[in-house]
Amino acid sequence: MDRLGGIRLRRPVLSIDNAEPAGETGMSETKKKAAAVAEEEEELLEEPVSPAGRLFREPHFSCYIVCTLGVAEPVDLPAVRAGIEATLARHPRFCSIQVLDELDKSAKPMWVRTKVNLDDHIIVPDLGPTDTSADSEKAVEDYVSSLSTPSMPMDRSRPLWELHGDEGAEFRPRRFVNRTISLDDVKNIKNAVGCTVNDVLVGLSSAALSRYYFRRTGESEGKKNIKVRTALMVNLRPTPGLHELAKMMESGKNNGVKWGNRFGYMILPFHLAKHDDPLEYVRKATKVTRRKKSSMEAIFTYWSADMVVKLFGIKAAASLCYGMFSNTTLSFSNLAGPSEQILFCGNPIVYISPTSYGHPHALTMHWQSYMNTIKLALAVDETQFPDAHELLDDFTESMRLIREAASRGTDKAQDGP
């Protein structure tokens, strides 16, 4: 018997209609009942979990996303609750749970709508005045890092999200740190070298890791063949970028907006070396990334992973993906954010700092642009990187050197021969 009582409801087309019916000031009792029935049926809707979603629920590859939002004003908890109840709690991915029919061995997990109890998801931690008075940023950093401990798994019987305010590397807690750099500086370097913003960030990362490596090892001469392999995530959506929630909620329309994870990856080498010209890091990164972009590597990795899931099942795909992450050194991701300031439940957002944990990498880099800044968020395994803030200092110093080198090159070009 079907786990929903032997009845499988036909899925209606999802849509958002804010217009009031013409000539009516209110809704009749019949329409109210029909709306209530439709809402109840909507809760029972099932949608297959995507291959990537199934992969992330595997025991040895359980990935979580952590995003820290800096706000300009103290949090108004009632306003936050009301805002989340009206928006996030109605989002299909934030009001659904993964359900698996255990009686059917061939069954695949499904997304099933459920009632959202905000008290289960909104958590107000008691950090204490002694924790926040001396160093508020350190207190937040310590608290966010505590969320990555294996002893705090998320309850799969409810939607997999929470809002917190006021043996292998994948099983060890992470330290989450971040640093802000100027987007204008990155664009000036981009124009000086003739590359993209992503090329500049890859070159900057290579320069910072080089400084960190040679400082930690004490080597004075830079070897030529030191490389670290990076798993670079690539968005394969037909229409990349930010989409309005209303468009995301629409179905049955050919607007190129789709649900689910659609990304491949590329193995990108980071060269660790010492260069007299700091811009050489960006030039080398540009050369490598251009070659990678012209290849079909990201599309092939996505296609092959999808085929492995279909032919051999999700456990084989999880094992393959785990092996890929285990044989690379770090993860790298770059995400373009809003160019104008946005609000969270009426509170202006100062910065956005996303990151993740649960995969077997001791170092994960996330670059997130927002307004005229770029936030670098690092998730580090402290047993491998006990000095995460010094690593951030290496990024800051590398950025300064590359920026000054780009400025000198621009001045020479303007002066002419």
TrEMBL record:
<keyword id="KW-0808">Transferase</keyword>
<dbReference type="GO" id="GO:0005886">
    <property type="term" value="C:plasma membrane"/>
</dbReference>
<protein>
    <submittedName>
        <fullName>Uncharacterized protein</fullName>
    </submittedName>
</protein>
<dbReference type="GO" id="GO:0019432">
    <property type="term" value="P:triglyceride biosynthetic process"/>
</dbReference>
<comment type="pathway">
    <text>Lipid metabolism.</text>
</comment>
<dbReference type="InterPro" id="IPR045034">
    <property type="entry name" value="O-acyltransferase_WSD1-like"/>
</dbReference>
<keyword id="KW-0012">Acyltransferase</keyword>
<comment type="similarity">
    <text>In the N-terminal section; belongs to the long-chain O-acyltransferase family.</text>
</comment>
<dbReference type="GO" id="GO:0005789">
    <property type="term" value="C:endoplasmic reticulum membrane"/>
</dbReference>
<dbReference type="InterPro" id="IPR004255">
    <property type="entry name" value="O-acyltransferase_WSD1_N"/>
</dbReference>
<dbReference type="Pfam" id="PF03007">
    <property type="entry name" value="WS_DGAT_cat"/>
</dbReference>
<comment type="pathway">
    <text>Glycerolipid metabolism; triacylglycerol biosynthesis.</text>
</comment>
<keyword id="KW-0256">Endoplasmic reticulum</keyword>
<feature type="domain" description="O-acyltransferase WSD1 C-terminal">
    <location>
        <begin position="259"/>
        <end position="402"/>
    </location>
</feature>
<feature type="domain" description="O-acyltransferase WSD1-like N-terminal">
    <location>
        <begin position="60"/>
        <end position="169"/>
    </location>
</feature>
<dbReference type="InterPro" id="IPR009721">
    <property type="entry name" value="O-acyltransferase_WSD1_C"/>
</dbReference>
<dbReference type="Pfam" id="PF06974">
    <property type="entry name" value="WS_DGAT_C"/>
</dbReference>
<dbReference type="GO" id="GO:0047196">
    <property type="term" value="F:long-chain-alcohol O-fatty-acyltransferase activity"/>
</dbReference>
<dbReference type="GO" id="GO:0004144">
    <property type="term" value="F:diacylglycerol O-acyltransferase activity"/>
</dbReference>
